[in-house]
Amino acid sequence: MREPVRIEGGATGAPSLEELLARVAQGDQSAFASVYDTVAGPVLGLVRSVLRDPAQSEEVAQEVLVEVWRLAAHFDPARGGATSWVMTLAHRRAVDRVRSAQAASDRDARAAQLDRTPAYDEVVEQVEARLEREQVRRCLGSLTELQRQSVTLAYYRGLTYREVAELLTQPLGTVKTRLRDGLIRLRDCLGVSA
Amino acid sequence: MNTAELHTLTGAFAVDALPQDEQHRFEAHLTECTACAAEVAELRAAAARLGLAVAETPPPALRDRVLRRIGEVRQESPPSGNSQRADERRPGRAAKWRTYALAACLAVAAALGGTAVWQHQQADEAREQTQQARRQTTQLAELLASPDARTISGGALPGGGSATAVVSQDRDRAALLASGMAEAPDGKVYQLWFADGGTMRPAGFAEPGTGAALLDGRVDGASGMGITVEPDGGSPQPTSDPVLLLEFPA
Fold first, then answer.
1. Does B52 contact chain A (CB < 8 Å)?
2. Chain A residues lying within 8 Å of B76, measured CB to CB
3. How far is B59 from chain A (nearest CA, A)?
4. Among A86, A139, A187, which would you mutate to test the B interface (most chain B Cβ atoms within 10 Å of its Cβ)?
5. ipTM entry
6. In-domain check, residue B70
7. N or C: less crowded end of chain B, CB within 10 Å?
8. Domain span at B174
9. Residue B217: is it exposed, middle or buried by C-beta count within 10 angstroms (0-12/13-18/19+)?
10. Averaged pLDDT, B114-140
11. What residues of chain A lie within 8 A of the CB of B62, using their CB?
12. Residues A51 and A81 occupy one common structural domain
C-alpha cells in the first residue's frame, strides 16, 4: 500500500518519509532530523488540539517524537503510510495523557470532566480557525452534522464515543456508527487509500 | 458483543475513542479480521489528514531538545515475524508476553530460593527473613501473572538505569522493576510512593542496582508511583523532587 498523504515541502526526488524512517531504524540521526522537520509541526498541532495546555502539549509532542526514533524499526509500510503511523502515535499519546489526567483528578466523576469540555460550537470554532487545509475543511463540510460532530469531538478533543454520545445526547450505537461512516465519507472525499 | 457489532467499531478504534476494555477486545478481534484491519488503516490515514490540517510551527527549542534526547535513547529492534502490531505502546499482546516471561523467571527464582531456605532453616531469624522474602516473591509472581497486569515502562533512573512499573487493579498491588539504579547518596535511601492525585503515600523502599520491589500497601486507586531520595529511614512525606514518576494506565 502506498501512502498518498504527502506533506508539502519536499523537493521532487527528496526521500519519502517511508525511506527516511527506514534509515532512522538503522540509527541514522541525520535522517531523523529530516523526519523531525517533516512531522514536528503536525504532531505538535494535533497534540495541542487534544490537550490544549501549551506547556503540556510541547512535553507530549517531545515524547512522541522521541518515540518515533525509538520505534522506527516497528514501522511496517505494509500496514499503512508513515504519516499515518506518526499521527496515530501522536493521537494515542495525547489521548492517553488526557485520560490519565482525568483518572488522576477524579476517577468516578466523568460527568465533571464532560462539564469542562467546551460546547461543540466552541470546539468547531477553535478548530476551524486553525484548519489550514481547504480540502480538509471542504471534506469535513461534506459530512452530515452528526458525523462531523462525532468525528471532530473524538479526534480533536480525544473523547471516547461514550463521552461523545453523552455530550450530543445521542444513543451509543448511533455515535459508533456515525464515527465509522463519517470517517469513511472523509476517506472517500480526501481520496485516501491507507 | 457479536462479530457484526465488532465490525462497526473500526471508526471509533481508528480515532482512539474506545474505552480501554473495548479497545482490548477489538484489538483481539483485529488479529482475526483482515478486512477490519484494512479498514482501520484507511480510516487512520483519513484521520491523520485531520491532524495535518491543524499543524503549527514548533518552537526551535523543541527541535534542539528532541535531537539531543535521541542521542540518549536506545532504539528498539524490529519485531520478530510480522504478527506484531505497529503501535507497540498499547498494553497489548507484547506487553502481556513480557509479563508472562517475567513471571516465569520469578517462579524459577522462587524455586531456587526454596532450596536455599531449606539449608538454613536452623536459624530462626534467617528463616523469618527468607519466609518474608518468599512471601514477597510469591506476591510479586501473582501480581506479574495477573491477567490484568499492566506494565508502564520508559522511566529513566539516575545513573542511566531504567525502570518499569507493573500494576494490577484486580490484585490491587504494584511493583517496580529496576535495572542499573545508581547508589543513593551517603545516608540516603530510595523511597517508593503511591501518587494519589497531588499527594504521595509511602510505599516502602527500593534497593540500588537491579531488582524488583513490591510496593508496600494497596494501590487503592492511586494514579501512579514515584521514587524520591530520602534520609535513611525514610520520610512520611517526600522531602525532594521525585527522581522518577510513572503514571498508571486509567
1. yes
2. 70-71, 73-74
3. 9
4. A187
5. 0.85
6. no
7. N
8. 150-247
9. middle
10. 56
11. 40, 44, 58, 61-62
12. yes
Across residues B194-219, what is the average pLDDT?
82
**Looking at the complex, does the CB of residue B108 fall below 8 Å from at least one CB of chain A?**
no
- Range(s) of the domain holding residue A138: 108-194
Check which CATH number belongs to the domain holding B16 and give it.
Answer: 1.10.10.1320
- pLDDT class of B120 with cuts at 50, 70, 90: very low
Number of domains in chain B: 3
The answer to the question of residue A133 being in a domain is: yes
Between A59 and B143, where is the model more confident?
Answer: A59
Q: Which helix (H) or strand (E) holds A8?
A: none
Note whether B77 contacts A: Cβ–Cβ < 8 A: yes
B243 & B167 share domain: yes
Count structural domains, chain A: 2
Q: What's the mean pLDDT in A147-153?
A: 95
CATH number at residue A67: 1.10.1740.10
B84 located within any domain: no
pLDDT at position B33 over 70: yes
Euclidean distance between CA atoms B96 and B92, whole angstroms: 6
- Give pLDDT, residue A4: 41
A92 and A129 part of one domain: no
| B164, B136: one domain | no
Interface check B90 vs A, CB under 8 A: yes
Q: H or E stretch including B165?
A: strand B162-168
pLDDT at A158: 94
CA-to-CA distance for A87 and A112, rounded, in angstroms?
29
* Stronger pLDDT, B245 or B66, i.e. the higher one: B66
Cβ contacts of A72 on chain B, cutoff 8 Å: 75
Out of B62, B77, B108, pick the residue that ends a domain. Answer: B62
My answer on whether B132 and B205 are in the same domain is no
Read off φ and ψ for residue B226, nearest 5 degrees.
-145, 165
The 3-state DSSP class for residue B181 equals strand
B203-227 average pLDDT score: 84
Q: What is the pLDDT of residues B7-24, one digit of tens each?
A: 889 999 999 999 999 999
One domain, residues B99 and B174? no
- Name the residue of chain A whose CA is nearest to B65's CA: A62
Q: Are residues A94 and A118 both part of a single domain?
A: no
Q: What is the mean pLDDT of residues A69-84?
A: 93
**Res. A109: pLDDT tops 80:** no
3-state secondary structure of B61: helix
Q: How far apart are CA A48 and CA A60, in angstroms?
A: 9
Collect all residues with Cβ–Cβ distance below 8 Å to B229 and sequence separation of at least 6. B184, B185, B188, B189, B190, B191, B240, B243
One domain, residues B167 and B212: yes
- Nearest CA to CA, how far is B1 from chain A (Å)? 12
The pTM for the full model equals 0.58
Name which residue leads in pLDDT, A115 or A57: A57
Copy the grid coordinates of residue B189. Answer: 535511601
What is the grid cell recorded at A83?
504519516
Residues B137 and B154 in one domain: no
Chain A residue whose CA is closest to B74: A70
User: What residues of B are in contact with residue A70 (Cβ under 8 Å)?
Assistant: 73-76
